[in-house]
Design brief:
Blueprint (H helix, E strand, L loop, with lengths): L3 E5 L4 H17 L2 E9 L5 H6 L3 H22 L4 E8 L1 H11 L4 E5 L13 H9 L4 E4 L4
Parallel strand pairs: 1-2, 1-4, 2-3, 4-5
This protein binds adenosine-5'-triphosphate (ATP) and magnesium ion.
């Protein structure tokens, strides 16, 4: 089954479901698990980054915190998690890393920080589904 899983997280509730599911799947498949967080240079933090000189430092710390939590949760379940933090356009960075590490599955939340319920999936997930060269597993809710 899957041998090399990539999970994308923005720290949102949805992405935490994706992370929980990815850890379970990695354990069951005995797969390698990598988690990525991307500091979004365009979207939700645009204004924050424009207004504060040290915004990237703050976001970087936030990224590390989120990724550390993923690593920690993995360890609790006996799954080693490699963590990667990038800066750029989230969908591009997720797609790039998936190819770099030759992921055979990308796991993502249906929505993220915006969490607008009337859209089927958020724009990051939409772009990854549309352009990924491997299957994409979209998780809505998983406790
Ligand atoms: N900056 C990010 N880094 C890593 N993964 C991300 C990032 N942003 C989103 N994702 C992944 O994409 C999933 C869906 O989030 P997305 O951003 O597409 O939805 P949204 O925030 O609700 O809507 P939008 O961003 O389009 O306003 C998240 O659960 C997460 O798996
Ligand atoms: Mg988003």
């Amino acid at each position: 089954m899957f041998k090399n899983i990539l999970v994308a997280t923005d720290g949102s509730e949805y992405s935490q479901s994706a992370v929980r599911y990815a850890i379970k799947l990695a354990k069951e498949c005995n797969a390698k698990l990598t988690a990525i967080y991307v500091i979004n240079v365009r979207g939700e933090f645009g204004l924050f980054r424009a207004l504060f000189k040290n915004a990237d430092k703050v976001l970087e710390n936030e990224a590390k915190k989120i990724l550390f939590q993923v690593k920690d949760l993995g360890e609790k379940h006996g799954v080693k998690v490699d963590v990667v933090f990038r800066k750029g356009i989230p969908s591009n960075e997720i797609l790039k890393l998936a190819e770099e590490i030759k992921a055979d599955l990308i796991v993502m939340g249906s929505r993220g920080l915006s969490g607008i319920e009337r859209v089927l999936v958020g724009s990051v997930t939409e772009k990854v589904i549309a352009n990924a060269k491997c299957p994409v597993l979209v998780v809505n809710r998983y406790v």
